[in-house]
From TrEMBL:
Membrane topology (UniProt): Multi-pass membrane protein
Compartments (UniProt record): Cell membrane
Name recorded for this polypeptide: Sulfate transport system permease protein CysT
Organism: Paenochrobactrum glaciei
Main location: membrane
Length: 287
């Protein structure tokens, strides 16, 4: 009976903590989240509702708004996918290999966390501009990065990489080498060991890192506006469009775009959360 109650997919009745104070800590947590997150977001939605349904729908269906939303969400999704591949690779190198300068590389991964986003945007623009170090080389192949959507993706890859590495790295450290050796002993190839043994254990962490990198990328502003070019219908992001609305004193219009971003972000993160829950149940992880 108890095994059924605690198995993946069944009910999971946790034992109460020996430490007292659940009601107090739970109440403080709910109050904290309500004051800092729920109330401001509710006010945003209520303020946008002042436009009426017709006004809100007009802004939502405006071609400039649609292009800006497509740019923000599309580039954030692509950048998060790129970071999943290379973030897992970087985490693997840091966990499984010992080499000179390893601690330095480990510290460099966290630089996007500490570096102001505007500084990151200026640096990336200087490097990838047509007369920059890398941009001038790419221009010889008729490839332009700065002031295009490609530049936005690069900026979002830059600020999103630490989310993947720092999420996957602790889980990867817990995977014993003996598991890989056992798979090799049973005749598994390297690819089969990675695909059938290592990745299933990392899948929940990878999805978490992807969600964090994606969420950060959707709302990113400082590092993007310098390298994006900010051309309407081409490389204009939704956060910039909100700022433009505010500069035009169209506060309800800005709130309407913010509400749309809030809804779309919540929907995509909810889907990712469902995938996380499914992967945990599939591979036998307890929540």
């Amino acid at each position: 009976m108890s095994s059924w109650l605690t198995r993946p997919g069944g009910f999971n009745f946790r034992q109460p903590s020996v430490l007292p104070g659940f009601r107090l800590t739970f109440g403080l947590s709910v109050a904290y989240l309500t004051l800092l997150i729920l109330i401001p977001l509710a006010v945003l939605v209520l303020y946008a509702s002042g436009l009426g349904w017709a006004g809100f729908w007009r802004i939502a269906m405006d071609q400039r708004t649609l292009y800006a939303l497509q740019t923000s969400f599309g580039t954030a999704f692509l950048a998060a996918l790129i970071n999943v591949v290379f973030g897992v690779l970087v985490a693997w190198v840091l966990v499984r290999y010992r080499f000179p300068g390893r601690r330095l590389v480990d510290a460099i991964v966290d630089l996007p966390f500490a570096l102001p986003t505007a500084v990151a945007g200026i640096a990336l623009t200087a490097v990838y501009a047509p007369n920059g170090w890398i941009g001038s080389i790419l221009m010889q192949f008729n490839t332009r990065v700065a002031f295009t959507k490609a530049g936005i993706v690069i900026a979002l890859v830059f600020i999103g990489l630490p989310f993947i590495v720092r999420t996957v790295q602790p889980i990867m450290e817990e995977i014993s080498r003996e598991v890989e050796e056992a798979a090799a002993t049973l005749g598994a190839s390297r690819f089969q060991t990675i695909w059938r043994v290592l990745l299933p254990g990392l899948q929940p962490a990878i999805l978490t890192g992807f969600a964090l990198a994606f969420a950060r990328g959707v709302g990113e502003y400082g590092s993007v506006i310098f390298i994006a070019g900010n051309t309407p219908y081409v490389s204009e992001i939704a956060p910039l469009l909100i700022v433009i609305k505010l500069e035009e004193f169209d506060y309800r219009g800005a709130a309407a775009i913010g509400t749309i971003m809030l809804f779309l972000s919540f929907l995509m993160l909810f889907i990712i959360n469902l995938l996380q829950s499914w992967s945990r149940r599939k591979y036998g992880y307890q929540n």
